[in-house]
Amino acid sequence: MSHSKPQSPSTCSTPRTHRHLPHSCWTEPNSELTGLHRHRYLSHTSGLTGDQALQTSTGTGAMEVLHSASPSSSSSSLSLLLLLLTVDWTGLGAAPFSLNDTSPGEPFPWDQPRLPANIRPDHYFIHIHPDLISQNFEGEVRITLTASSDAHFIVLNSRGLAIKSASIHQPTGQEPTPTPPPTGSQGQPTSPAGVRDQVPGEQLLPPLHAVNEEQEAEGRVEPGQAPLHADCPDHPPPPPNAPRQAQLPLRAVKQIPLRMGSHNQASDAAVSQEESPAHAAVTQEKPPPHAVIQKQLTLRVVNQVHNFKPAVNADHSYEPPVSADPRPQALPPRGWTSVRVLESPSREQLALIPEMPLRAGLSYQISLTYSGSISSSFSGLYASSYRTPQGTSRTIVATHFEPSSARKVFPCFDEPGMKAIFSVVIVRDSEHISLSNMPKGSTVPNEDGLLEDHFLPTVKMSPYLLAFVVCDFSSTSAQTKRGVTVSVFAPSHQVNQTDHALQTAVKLLDFYEDYLQIPYPLPKIDLVAVPDFEAGAMENWGLVTFRESSLLSEVETGDPWSRVYISLVIAHELAHQWFGNLVTMEWWDGLWLNEGFASYLEHTAVDLTEPSWGVGDQLLLASAFRALERDAFLTSHPVSQPVSNTTQIAQMFDVISYAKGSSLLRMLHIYLTDQVFTDGIRLYLRQHSYGVTHQADLWGALSEVSRGRGRDDDVEALMEPWVGQQGYPVVSVTRKGNRALLRQDQFTSRPQNDSDSLWPIPFTFYTSTSSSPRTHLMKSREEVIDLPSEVLWIKANVNSSRFYRVCYTGALQGALSAQLRRDLTVFSAADRAGLLDDTFHLASQGALQYSEAFQLSLFLQQEEELPPISIFLHHMTGMMRKFSFSKQPCVIRLLKAHTWSMLGRLMKAQRWEDDGSLSNQSRRAKLLSLATELRHPPAEQHALRLFHFWMAKEGQHPLPRTLRTLVYREGIRRGGGAEWSFLLQRYRESSSAAQRTAMLAALCHTSNRSSATWLLQAALLNTQIKTQDLALIVSQLARRYRTNHLTWAFLQRNWDTLLTKFSLGSPFLSGVVTAITSQFYSQKKYNEGV
């Protein structure tokens, strides 16, 4: 999944929120945008409650807060989130679940957050009708499943659904035989893997009494009896490969009327026997927060299972079944048996408890009918809207299931390792279309005058990858070299903004097929611009959903950096079609296997398909710098981190999984060589296609290829410390005659560090006498390498491509500074940027003096390249912001003076035009923005002049594309109410998502507090400004001293409302809290935090 917008090559410490930019923190030049990213960068949580020590290390300077959290009030919920964002996970797991803490009602038979492993789904048949008018949906799901061992109950996930009925049938020739569960030595029920089959003291379900045909005909079905025929056809369904017959009704039994509303209301679930003689009455009381809800339903026993399995050819291409009907077939007649349905809302689990146990090795089919409400948030099945140029509001519905929201739309085994085939039927009206992962097989009218779209069965995949959209969009399409249909969908008035995305997607899909040597397995892939979208994008297999600004751009007038960003997001999501979709991590602790690969390959793919841009290496460098900064916090976590509950899972979508995962793969790629790494990941994909993996499977494939190439790399021994340990090392280099003494320690943002962690470090270096890099694999705390006596300096971590920092002690630091001033071209731009980043971070930690960092930076007077300039500005602006909040104007003046003395020559040389390479345009925008930040009068006046001329021409006069964000911002910052109102009006009228984002960021630079408050409220209420952009507004306002307090007050005042739109621990809430509190430097703010 993708998260937010990339900046022009720089390294910024910005708050993130799904799936984008995992790639980098670059935004369009000078935009200062910190928008919402999928991809989502945030801190992690332990899931603990109660009094906790809260340590917050944020931004360029953060304070420690000791905080007591209790979830009993709005403010304490906010305090809890602050705790969740910062508490150390190491050694912590989910709070234990007690069967005794469920009041009143029967204890739930399963006490783990993860589902039992002995029951696995094979095929889902899903029939769903989202009603765009009532904002409700009703559906039926039929799941074919297999038991690997005997089981007395079935546990699956469900959240917020009103379950109406349940039924089951089992294989041909298997008569159910009641068998008591095994008992232990004390006579208590036992089961494999600690499964509780029966509550102590509870009797087994009584046997179901038969009902004769006379009773059934008269409707005299007593409680505990099952009708013989119950509305089923009198013939079994056809075999899976039989020719397609006339359309059969979806529901095999008389349907209980589906009622809308909360599943916690008894009226929603209560069904009389008159309404459904085949089902017992369902009654339900509103439960306390942690209660187990019990429903008395019925479970159907039948004798045949249909399990259509789409064929996948040897070359991994998909071949749709000739006669596979995605609708569930009618069930053959059999007796009914009683079943209890228990619900545990706190665990989001549903238990079906039949009288007869499920037998090992047999397949069964369960069917549930249910209803629910279309969400107003950004997960599950939710509503989204847009306005046409004529001002008409149009509503669509879309899904977003990752990581754990499929359960909000249909009861399912909602875990990534529970892969299955999905057959989907969507009911809609004729004014809309529906899209899903696969092409439509047919569209048929139903008896209600609506249309049913029947989609072909998917390949085997995880439930979080299922998706559908019901909309009125138009599209453009093209085909890849191999004939895969690529389509981009958007509102009709925005279809002219899809050309770049379409061309890019076709080009990248061809690239990945060639690079990975595995064909994309589906016949089509759709890219859909969803008007309301929390993340940057989501890689649903065959139906990729995007935020509009991540997909749409004007070809002629759009900012070129916007197109770079769009290309990166598309590259990220298409990489997921292999890494994440074809091969999936078994559980969320392996999320980095998905996101790390997608983040790494997005840069590789864009760099190789758009070589003229020349941005791939710069973006990877920026991504690595951001990961190094975040991973130094004491509140970081290992790349592979045990997680259990949904809050912990959501917190894994952060800079560690994305950017650090990507950086580690880059380091491994370089160490193993290109041939070994590329062949190794191809082998990994081939070995585990349509399956699930652990990181050991990746290490094994790479080691196998390495051995085949005559190397002897133990990849697991090399990489496990990097993914299994928090943080990373700093290598201290000390010159001792003809030797260099190396010592590794964990680098943290605070100088006190007693960690005993060790890493196998690919220590690369070159010297003043030899530019040829050498590699030394450092495995111990201290090691020694030999140097020629004439060496003046040593430069380690060649091209800053390995995940560690380097501290040069004694004369080495001074020798490097002198060489940079003498001839900076001896070092690559990446090495110069790395030296600056390491030195300033080491100074902030106390390992070096700040005077050494400023001395090193003097070479910037001769610098022309973007990476060193960007990293220098990142550190300077961060320090200026810190001292502005702590009210130290003298320090700020000194920082500004040093910045001007280093880059003033370049700033004054910039022209207010669009020309030159993409990198030069980005550098120009960054330097001119800096000039206005430093209050350079000529720059300020020129920017304001351009804004007023644009304003006089009613926004029709084009501004320089790469400088528009800067001009908007200066017009608001130096203007007044007229300028603000004009830009707001242009924001409302613009159909360009990229321009709307730039304008909105500029509007946040107002000095009028009423205007700033209006922006926050409008976004909260989703009026004129979309709620998806609230994170952008908060982050922009929080960075400025005059408006930071407004954001803090807003967050406290609207906490309950925000919790209805975003879940606790979500990327959004994490991002906004981090954006605000990262600017807390005063004792007063400290007191507010606690």
Automatic annotation (TrEMBL):
<keyword id="KW-0031">Aminopeptidase</keyword>
<feature type="compositionally biased region" description="Polar residues">
    <location>
        <begin position="1"/>
        <end position="15"/>
    </location>
</feature>
<keyword id="KW-0645">Protease</keyword>
<dbReference type="GO" id="GO:0006508">
    <property type="term" value="P:proteolysis"/>
</dbReference>
<dbReference type="InterPro" id="IPR024571">
    <property type="entry name" value="ERAP1-like_C_dom"/>
</dbReference>
<protein>
    <recommendedName>
        <fullName>Aminopeptidase</fullName>
    </recommendedName>
</protein>
<dbReference type="InterPro" id="IPR014782">
    <property type="entry name" value="Peptidase_M1_dom"/>
</dbReference>
<dbReference type="InterPro" id="IPR050344">
    <property type="entry name" value="Peptidase_M1_aminopeptidases"/>
</dbReference>
<feature type="binding site">
    <location>
        <position position="595"/>
    </location>
    <ligand>
        <name>Zn(2+)</name>
    </ligand>
</feature>
<dbReference type="GO" id="GO:0043171">
    <property type="term" value="P:peptide catabolic process"/>
</dbReference>
<dbReference type="Pfam" id="PF11838">
    <property type="entry name" value="ERAP1_C"/>
</dbReference>
<dbReference type="GO" id="GO:0042277">
    <property type="term" value="F:peptide binding"/>
</dbReference>
<feature type="binding site">
    <location>
        <position position="572"/>
    </location>
    <ligand>
        <name>Zn(2+)</name>
    </ligand>
</feature>
<dbReference type="Pfam" id="PF17900">
    <property type="entry name" value="Peptidase_M1_N"/>
</dbReference>
<feature type="active site" description="Proton acceptor">
    <location>
        <position position="573"/>
    </location>
</feature>
<dbReference type="InterPro" id="IPR034016">
    <property type="entry name" value="M1_APN-typ"/>
</dbReference>
<keyword id="KW-0479">Metal-binding</keyword>
<dbReference type="GO" id="GO:0016020">
    <property type="term" value="C:membrane"/>
</dbReference>
<feature type="region of interest" description="Disordered">
    <location>
        <begin position="262"/>
        <end position="288"/>
    </location>
</feature>
<dbReference type="Pfam" id="PF01433">
    <property type="entry name" value="Peptidase_M1"/>
</dbReference>
<dbReference type="GO" id="GO:0005737">
    <property type="term" value="C:cytoplasm"/>
</dbReference>
<comment type="similarity">
    <text>Belongs to the peptidase M1 family.</text>
</comment>
<keyword id="KW-0482">Metalloprotease</keyword>
<keyword id="KW-0378">Hydrolase</keyword>
<feature type="site" description="Transition state stabilizer">
    <location>
        <position position="658"/>
    </location>
</feature>
<dbReference type="InterPro" id="IPR001930">
    <property type="entry name" value="Peptidase_M1"/>
</dbReference>
<dbReference type="GO" id="GO:0005615">
    <property type="term" value="C:extracellular space"/>
</dbReference>
<dbReference type="GO" id="GO:0070006">
    <property type="term" value="F:metalloaminopeptidase activity"/>
</dbReference>
<feature type="domain" description="Aminopeptidase N-like N-terminal">
    <location>
        <begin position="350"/>
        <end position="465"/>
    </location>
</feature>
<dbReference type="InterPro" id="IPR042097">
    <property type="entry name" value="Aminopeptidase_N-like_N_sf"/>
</dbReference>
<dbReference type="InterPro" id="IPR027268">
    <property type="entry name" value="Peptidase_M4/M1_CTD_sf"/>
</dbReference>
<keyword id="KW-0862">Zinc</keyword>
<feature type="binding site">
    <location>
        <position position="576"/>
    </location>
    <ligand>
        <name>Zn(2+)</name>
    </ligand>
</feature>
<dbReference type="InterPro" id="IPR045357">
    <property type="entry name" value="Aminopeptidase_N-like_N"/>
</dbReference>
<dbReference type="GO" id="GO:0008270">
    <property type="term" value="F:zinc ion binding"/>
</dbReference>
<feature type="region of interest" description="Disordered">
    <location>
        <begin position="214"/>
        <end position="245"/>
    </location>
</feature>
<feature type="domain" description="Peptidase M1 membrane alanine aminopeptidase">
    <location>
        <begin position="501"/>
        <end position="722"/>
    </location>
</feature>
<feature type="domain" description="ERAP1-like C-terminal">
    <location>
        <begin position="793"/>
        <end position="1088"/>
    </location>
</feature>
<feature type="region of interest" description="Disordered">
    <location>
        <begin position="1"/>
        <end position="29"/>
    </location>
</feature>
<feature type="region of interest" description="Disordered">
    <location>
        <begin position="169"/>
        <end position="200"/>
    </location>
</feature>
